[in-house]
Amino acid sequence: MAGPTLILASASPRRRDLIARLGVMPAAVRAADIDETPLRAELPRVYATRMAREKALAAADPASHVLAGDTVVACGRRILPKAEDEATARDCLALLSGRRHWVLSAVALLAPDGTMRERLSETQVRFKRLSTQEIDAYIASGEWHGKAGGYAIQGRAEGLVAWLAGSHSGVVGLPLFETRALLLAAGFLLG
Q: Is residue 70 flagged as an active site residue?
Protein backbone atom coordinates (compact mmCIF):
# COMPACT_ATOMS: atom_id res chain seq x y z
CA MET A 1 0.00 0.00 0.00
CA ALA A 2 1.39 3.39 -0.99
CA GLY A 3 1.83 6.08 1.64
CA PRO A 4 -0.02 9.37 1.67
CA THR A 5 0.60 11.86 -1.12
CA LEU A 6 1.29 15.53 -0.57
CA ILE A 7 0.40 18.58 -2.63
CA LEU A 8 2.28 21.81 -1.95
CA ALA A 9 -0.14 24.71 -2.37
CA SER A 10 2.49 27.26 -3.35
CA ALA A 11 4.26 28.44 -6.47
CA SER A 12 7.15 29.69 -4.32
CA PRO A 13 10.48 28.09 -5.23
CA ARG A 14 11.66 28.94 -1.69
CA ARG A 15 8.94 26.80 -0.14
CA ARG A 16 9.77 23.89 -2.47
CA ASP A 17 13.45 24.15 -1.51
CA LEU A 18 12.62 24.36 2.19
CA ILE A 19 10.29 21.35 2.26
CA ALA A 20 12.95 19.35 0.39
CA ARG A 21 15.27 19.96 3.37
CA LEU A 22 12.91 17.75 5.37
CA GLY A 23 13.30 14.96 2.81
CA VAL A 24 9.77 15.42 1.48
CA MET A 25 9.01 15.84 -2.20
CA PRO A 26 5.44 16.84 -3.00
CA ALA A 27 3.63 14.76 -5.59
CA ALA A 28 2.35 18.03 -7.09
CA VAL A 29 2.72 21.78 -6.70
CA ARG A 30 -0.35 23.96 -7.13
CA ALA A 31 -0.46 27.70 -6.73
CA ALA A 32 -3.46 28.71 -4.64
CA ASP A 33 -5.12 31.72 -6.24
CA ILE A 34 -7.01 33.43 -3.42
CA ASP A 35 -7.86 36.98 -2.39
CA GLU A 36 -5.08 37.98 0.01
CA THR A 37 -6.65 41.24 1.15
CA PRO A 38 -6.58 41.56 4.95
CA LEU A 39 -9.98 41.94 6.58
CA ARG A 40 -10.78 45.23 8.27
CA ALA A 41 -8.91 45.42 11.62
CA GLU A 42 -7.54 41.89 11.14
CA LEU A 43 -4.53 41.23 13.34
CA PRO A 44 -1.33 39.93 11.69
CA ARG A 45 -1.33 36.51 13.44
CA VAL A 46 -4.96 35.90 12.54
CA TYR A 47 -4.35 37.02 8.97
CA ALA A 48 -1.31 34.75 8.45
CA THR A 49 -3.17 31.71 9.78
CA ARG A 50 -6.28 32.49 7.72
CA MET A 51 -4.20 32.84 4.55
CA ALA A 52 -2.46 29.47 5.07
CA ARG A 53 -5.82 27.81 5.76
CA GLU A 54 -7.49 29.38 2.70
CA LYS A 55 -4.60 28.41 0.43
CA ALA A 56 -4.84 24.80 1.61
CA LEU A 57 -8.59 24.76 1.01
CA ALA A 58 -8.17 26.31 -2.46
CA ALA A 59 -5.89 23.43 -3.48
CA ALA A 60 -7.92 20.69 -1.73
CA ASP A 61 -7.72 17.23 -3.23
CA PRO A 62 -9.83 14.25 -2.04
CA ALA A 63 -6.88 11.88 -2.49
CA SER A 64 -4.01 13.94 -1.04
CA HIS A 65 -2.86 16.01 1.88
CA VAL A 66 -2.33 19.68 1.02
CA LEU A 67 0.36 21.78 2.67
CA ALA A 68 0.10 25.56 2.45
CA GLY A 69 1.93 28.42 4.06
CA ASP A 70 1.83 32.17 4.33
CA THR A 71 4.38 34.63 5.63
CA VAL A 72 3.44 38.05 6.97
CA VAL A 73 5.71 40.90 8.00
CA ALA A 74 4.14 43.03 10.73
CA CYS A 75 5.26 46.23 12.38
CA GLY A 76 3.11 46.51 15.49
CA ARG A 77 -0.45 45.71 14.41
CA ARG A 78 0.26 46.83 10.85
CA ILE A 79 0.51 44.17 8.12
CA LEU A 80 3.12 45.22 5.59
CA PRO A 81 2.28 44.56 1.94
CA LYS A 82 4.09 42.40 -0.57
CA ALA A 83 6.18 44.93 -2.44
CA GLU A 84 5.15 45.04 -6.08
CA ASP A 85 6.77 48.39 -6.87
CA GLU A 86 9.87 50.30 -5.78
CA ALA A 87 7.91 52.91 -3.84
CA THR A 88 6.25 50.25 -1.66
CA ALA A 89 9.56 48.46 -1.07
CA ARG A 90 11.25 51.74 -0.16
CA ASP A 91 8.43 52.64 2.27
CA CYS A 92 8.66 49.22 3.94
CA LEU A 93 12.44 49.41 4.34
CA ALA A 94 12.25 52.95 5.73
CA LEU A 95 9.63 51.82 8.25
CA LEU A 96 11.68 48.77 9.30
CA SER A 97 15.00 50.64 9.48
CA GLY A 98 16.44 50.32 12.99
CA ARG A 99 13.24 48.76 14.32
CA ARG A 100 12.05 45.42 15.54
CA HIS A 101 9.31 43.75 13.57
CA TRP A 102 7.58 40.39 13.50
CA VAL A 103 7.62 37.81 10.75
CA LEU A 104 4.67 35.45 11.17
CA SER A 105 4.81 32.29 9.13
CA ALA A 106 1.74 30.08 9.24
CA VAL A 107 1.54 26.57 7.86
CA ALA A 108 -1.61 24.50 7.37
CA LEU A 109 -1.98 20.83 6.47
CA LEU A 110 -5.33 19.72 5.06
CA ALA A 111 -6.02 15.98 5.13
CA PRO A 112 -8.17 14.25 2.49
CA ASP A 113 -10.92 13.86 5.12
CA GLY A 114 -11.04 17.64 5.63
CA THR A 115 -9.12 17.71 8.90
CA MET A 116 -7.00 20.86 9.12
CA ARG A 117 -3.90 21.14 11.29
CA GLU A 118 -2.16 24.50 11.67
CA ARG A 119 0.98 25.92 13.22
CA LEU A 120 2.33 29.46 13.50
CA SER A 121 5.95 30.53 13.76
CA GLU A 122 6.64 33.95 15.26
CA THR A 123 10.05 35.48 14.63
CA GLN A 124 11.28 38.85 15.79
CA VAL A 125 13.73 40.60 13.47
CA ARG A 126 15.59 43.87 13.86
CA PHE A 127 17.20 45.64 10.94
CA LYS A 128 20.17 47.92 11.48
CA ARG A 129 19.45 51.59 10.91
CA LEU A 130 19.49 51.79 7.12
CA SER A 131 21.11 54.67 5.29
CA THR A 132 19.58 56.09 2.14
CA GLN A 133 22.44 54.50 0.20
CA GLU A 134 21.74 51.06 1.73
CA ILE A 135 18.05 51.32 0.85
CA ASP A 136 18.93 52.47 -2.69
CA ALA A 137 21.35 49.56 -3.14
CA TYR A 138 18.79 47.05 -1.90
CA ILE A 139 16.11 48.49 -4.18
CA ALA A 140 18.54 48.25 -7.12
CA SER A 141 19.06 44.53 -6.37
CA GLY A 142 15.41 43.78 -7.20
CA GLU A 143 15.22 41.13 -4.45
CA TRP A 144 12.33 42.98 -2.82
CA HIS A 145 9.89 42.30 -5.66
CA GLY A 146 6.88 40.31 -4.47
CA LYS A 147 8.28 39.92 -0.96
CA ALA A 148 6.30 40.59 2.20
CA GLY A 149 7.68 43.69 3.88
CA GLY A 150 9.83 44.46 0.84
CA TYR A 151 12.75 42.17 1.63
CA ALA A 152 14.05 38.62 1.23
CA ILE A 153 16.19 37.47 4.15
CA GLN A 154 17.76 34.69 2.07
CA GLY A 155 19.49 37.31 -0.06
CA ARG A 156 21.27 40.61 0.47
CA ALA A 157 18.85 41.69 3.22
CA GLU A 158 20.38 39.11 5.55
CA GLY A 159 23.36 41.45 5.84
CA LEU A 160 21.03 44.17 7.13
CA VAL A 161 19.60 42.07 9.97
CA ALA A 162 21.16 43.08 13.31
CA TRP A 163 19.51 40.16 15.11
CA LEU A 164 16.79 37.58 14.78
CA ALA A 165 14.95 35.61 17.46
CA GLY A 166 12.94 32.70 16.13
CA SER A 167 12.83 30.73 12.89
CA HIS A 168 15.11 31.73 10.03
CA SER A 169 13.28 29.30 7.72
CA GLY A 170 10.00 30.91 8.79
CA VAL A 171 11.28 34.29 7.63
CA VAL A 172 12.31 32.71 4.32
CA GLY A 173 8.77 31.38 3.90
CA LEU A 174 8.20 27.97 5.53
CA PRO A 175 8.94 27.31 9.21
CA LEU A 176 10.62 23.91 9.14
CA PHE A 177 10.15 23.05 12.82
CA GLU A 178 6.38 23.61 12.61
CA THR A 179 6.12 22.00 9.18
CA ARG A 180 8.00 18.93 10.36
CA ALA A 181 5.61 18.56 13.33
CA LEU A 182 2.59 18.64 11.00
CA LEU A 183 4.15 16.15 8.57
CA LEU A 184 5.13 13.80 11.41
CA ALA A 185 1.57 13.82 12.73
CA ALA A 186 0.25 13.00 9.25
CA GLY A 187 2.69 10.12 8.69
CA PHE A 188 4.93 11.74 6.05
CA LEU A 189 8.00 11.51 8.23
CA LEU A 190 9.29 8.99 10.73
CA GLY A 191 10.28 10.32 14.16
A: yes
